Amino acid sequence: MNGVERIQAAFARDAKIKLMTHAVVGYPDMTSSSRILRAMADSGADFIEAQLPFSDPIADGPSIVEANHVALRSGSRTLACIETLARLRAETDLPILVMSYVNPLLAHGIEAIVRRIAEAGLDGLIVPDWPDDEPELGLGEKCGAAGLALVPLIAPSTSLDRAHALTAASKSPFVYAVTRLGVTGRRTQLEESALERLSKLRARTGKYVAAGFGIRERSQVEALAGHADCAIVGSALVDAARAAHHAGLRDLPKAGGAAEETDPAAAVARLVRSLAGRE
C-alpha cells in the first residue's frame, strides 16, 4: 500500500471526524520526540503530521517556531528526522505526513528527498510555502510517481474555483484548509460562515477536507463534523509538551505528581485522548 492509498483508506474507514496531530521532530530532543510521536499514534490520532525543523517557519506561531529552534539546537537534522519517522512507520499503520518548508527540501534535492521519504514508508508531504504555480521543480510529479500525496493548502482568501484548479491535478485524497489568515497557534473561532466555506470547499474540490490553524479543544473538533473530514491540531500539542518539559527541567513536582506534569509524551497523550473524545 503506497502513501496515497493509505491516506484514502484512513479517511474511508468510517464517517467520524478524523484527528491529525502535529509534532516537530526533534522537539525537545530526538528521544523525547520519538516518544511523543508514538504517544500520538497510541492515544487516538488518525493521522500524524511530522514537521522537519527549520530556522524560519513563516506560517507558524510562537510555540511551533520555538519548538523548531529548540529541535535545531538539539542537533535534529532533516535526514535524521526522516530516520526517526521510518522507525515510527515500523510501529504504526497510521498515515504519516511530512510537513516541511521548501528550503530543507531544496537543500537535499527534490528527487533525493522524495525518494528518501518514500523509502521510509511515509505517506505524503505538506509544504506551506511551496509555490503552486511553479511546476519547474516537479515536486508534485515526483511525489505522484513515488506514491506520495502532495497535499494542497487552501487559504481562506482562495476562491472555490481557484481551489478546484489547484486540487484537480493533485493525487492527494485531501486538502489542507486553513481556517483563518495569520499564523498557527491563536485559537480559531469557528463561525458559521467558516464552516459553510469548508462544506463548499469539500463539494467543489471533491476531496476530503482537513481543517487547521487554531484548533485546540474537543468542542472545536466536534464543531467541524459535517463540514470537514479531519481536524488538525498543532500548537496546543506543542504547548502541552513544552509545559511538561519545562516542569521536568525544574524537577517539579519532586514526588507524587501525575506523569503528564513532567513527561512531554504523557502530556501529549492526555491531550490527544481528549481531542479524540476518548476521555
Number of helices: 12
Biggest pleated sheet: 9 strands, parallel
Which CATH class applies here? Alpha Beta
Question: What fold name stands as the CATH topology?
Answer: TIM Barrel
Q: What is the correct CATH architecture?
A: Alpha-Beta Barrel
Q: Structural class, from secondary structure content?
A: alpha/beta
In percent, how much strand structure appears in the residues?
5-15%
Unreliable runs: none
Mean pLDDT: 91
Number of strands: 9
Q: Can you describe what's shown?
A:
The mean pLDDT is 91. Strand 6 (153-154), helix 8 and strand 7 (174-178) form a beta-alpha-beta unit. The chain has 12 helices and 9 strands. It is globular and about 55 Å long. It is 46% helix and 13% strand. It has one domain (3-275): Aldolase class I (TIM Barrel), CATH 3.20.20.70. By secondary structure, the protein is an alpha/beta fold. Helix 11 packs antiparallel against helix 12. A 9-stranded parallel β-sheet has the order 5-4-3-2-1-9-8-7-6, sandwiched between helices. It has helices spanning 3-12, 30-43, 62-73, 78-89, 102-108, 110-119, 139-145, 160-168, 192-205, 218-224, 235-249, 264-275, and strands spanning 18-24, 47-51, 96-99, 124-126, 149-150, 153-154, 174-178, 208-212, 230-233. The two termini are 32 Å apart.
